[in-house]
Amino acid sequence: MDAPEPIRETVNAVYTSESRRVLATLIRVLGDFDAAEEAMHDAFRAALEQWPRDGVPANPRAWLVSTGRFKAIDARRRLSRFEALDDRDDASELGSIDPEAWTDKASVEDDRLRLIFTCCHPALAPDGQVALTLREVCGLTTEEIARTFLTPAPTMAQRIVRAKAKIRDARIPYKVPEASELPDRLDAVLRVIYLVFNEGYNASAGPAVTRHDLSSEAIRLGRLLVELLPEPEALGLLGLMLIHESRREARTSASGDLILLEEQDRSLWNRDLIAEGNGLIERSLSSHHFGPYSLQGAIAMVHADAREAAATDWDEIVRWYDVLLRRAPSPVIELNRGVAVAMRDGPGAGLAIVDAILDRGDLREYRLAHAARGDFCRRLGRTAEARVAYQRARALSHQEPERRFLDRRIAELGSSG
Amino acid sequence: MKYVCLVYLEGEKLHAVPDRECAECSDGFRRRGLLVAAEALQPVETAATLRLRNGKVSVTDGPFAETKEQLAGFYLIEATDLNDAIQIASKIPPIREGSVEVRPVRELQP
Q1: Residues A117-156 as b or e (16 or more Cβ within 10 Å = b)
Q2: Could you say which of B28, B33, B82 has the minimum Cβ distance to residue A153?
Q3: Which of B33, B83, B104 sits opposite A161 (nearest CB)?
Q4: Measured between CB atoms, does B27 come within 8 Å of chain A?
């Protein structure tokens, strides 16, 4: 393990750039997550021993896959001295795979897609999908994932162990879904990516509004997916995330407080990210096979195009929301449409929409519904109702900057009413 | 990252797993560069527990735990993260007779 420093650096650099590809291919070759992970680690350890002596191979990725595979065969042989190889593949079968198949670019990229679809398989629990994707596809450690989700590491470890056991026991195939099931399966992948992004962009708990590391992992995943499978909704989701990300600087004050979209200093918005996001969303919209992510992207684009809040084309935003509601009806989207309607037609129209949602029993535990109701009532001068709504929102919020924001709103209402 | 895998067994099961198997396991870990150290321990009856109080060292017999399982041995391993450590620890043979506790090592902050 005591390799000379330059080689150690080379191996580390190869680990960073190639370990996810090597893992993805080894899972296919060995047919087992745990065996593939072991084989990959063994291959990198072998690199530390052999590369100083033999030189760095011309194709490190192929070397690592082939070495990992031999290590796995070796491990199985040794295991077979203790227990019968009941339902395991025979080691000799592993030897029959064509070495060419590991090295060509197309099959390696296919392996990365297979890995993404397997980690986001609908048979896995949603928190297991997220944990597994971050660990296997993004290469985060269990401890890093646990820290970003403010979860104890053993809890996170358990989710990963359970998800892997499920893949093994349910014999979830390691493949890219057929065209017929692709829309549903892609949807599951996009949901995981967006969940990771939102947890980073709008942290549900903790001291800060945003957790940059998770957002950037989600964007990396989004880019990878667009590179491997440029479906309209993959483009739309990446575009949506990039436009949200463009506002990061403007979204919080120096003291870490939340600044609403209409109050943000728009000169702080990252125009490069907006341009890239707009391009992706336009590509998706022109395909005519777009869905909810591209539509949310279209709405984000309208905001991004307004140089100041007062110049926002609320009519266009409401129209996009109408399309979105038809395509993907949900109380949260209805609420967001209500906010846009309030901007276009006044707070009374918004209040009618949010009250209709709450009256039928939806979103009663959703802090943003009560915060919106508080805003509409405040603007209508119904101070007492506004205070009750803000207090309800505050009680439901677990994020400190958001609570401070609501405290300010409550204080601004004064003691009247 | 270093993790310690603490093997717990009931007293009467200390020899339930053949030594040869445990040695094979350690050798395998060592060959793969995972092992920092591993030892099996004598039964808890052989232990002495020391305390320094008011400048005086006191010595008592073994730890008087209520539980039937006792610390039977340990493996100090090198792993990339907790799940990697769990995967390695799941191969420790006495796991089928007792339990293995996996704990990350804490770096001292002098």
Answers
A1: bbbbbeebeebbbbbbbbbbbbebbbbbbbbbbeeebeeb
A2: B82
A3: B83
A4: no
Q: Do A143 and B82 touch (CB under 8 A)?
A: yes
Length of chain B: 110
Strands (E), A200-256: none
Query: Quick one: how many helices (H) and strands (E) in chain B?
Result: 2, 6
| CB atoms closer than 10 angstroms to residue A177 | 18
Phi, psi (deg, nearest 5) at residue A39:
-60, -40
Q: How far is the alpha carbon of A71 from chain B, nearest alpha carbon, in Å?
A: 10
Mutate to test the interface with B, among A38, A132, A151, A164 (most CBs of B within 10 A): A38
Judged by CB atoms closer than 8 Å, whether chains meet at B84 and A41 is answered as: yes
Q: Is the pLDDT of residue A92 over 50?
A: no
Paired residues of B58 in beta bridges: B51
d(CA B107, CA B110): 9
Angle at A331 between CA A325 and CA A334, to 5 degrees: 50
Percent helix / strand / coil, chain B, rounded to 5: 30, 40, 35
Name the burial class of residue A170, with classes exposed (0-12), middle (13-18) and buried (19+) by CB atoms within 10 angstroms of its CB.
exposed
Q: Give the three-class secondary structure for A183.
A: helix
ipTM given for this complex:
0.87
Cβ contacts below 8 Å, chain A against chain B, sum to 37
Residue A212: the pLDDT is 61
Hey, is the C-beta of A46 within 8 angstroms of any chain B C-beta?
no
Closest CA to A288 of A231, A205, A341, A239: A231
CB A166 within 8 A of CB A123: yes
Burial of B28 (0-12, 13-18, 19+ CB in 10 A): middle
pLDDT in the model for residue B81: 96
Cα–Cα distance, A58 to A51 (Å, whole number): 11
* Confidence bin at A90 (pLDDT 50/70/90): very low
Amino acid, res. A40? M
Q: Read off the amino acid at residue B60.
A: T
Q: Is B87 on the interface with A (CB under 8 A)?
A: yes
Whether the CB of B80 is below 8 Å from some CB of chain A: the reply is: yes
Q: Which of B28, B80, B87 sits opposite A141 (nearest CB)?
A: B80
Amino acid occupying residue A68: G
Do residues A256 and A212 make contact, with C-beta atoms less than 8 angstroms apart? no
CB contact under 8 A, B82 and A157: yes
- Residues in chain B, pLDDT under 70: 64-67
Report the C-alpha gap between A378 and A148 in whole angstroms: 35
A403 has a pLDDT exceeding 60? yes
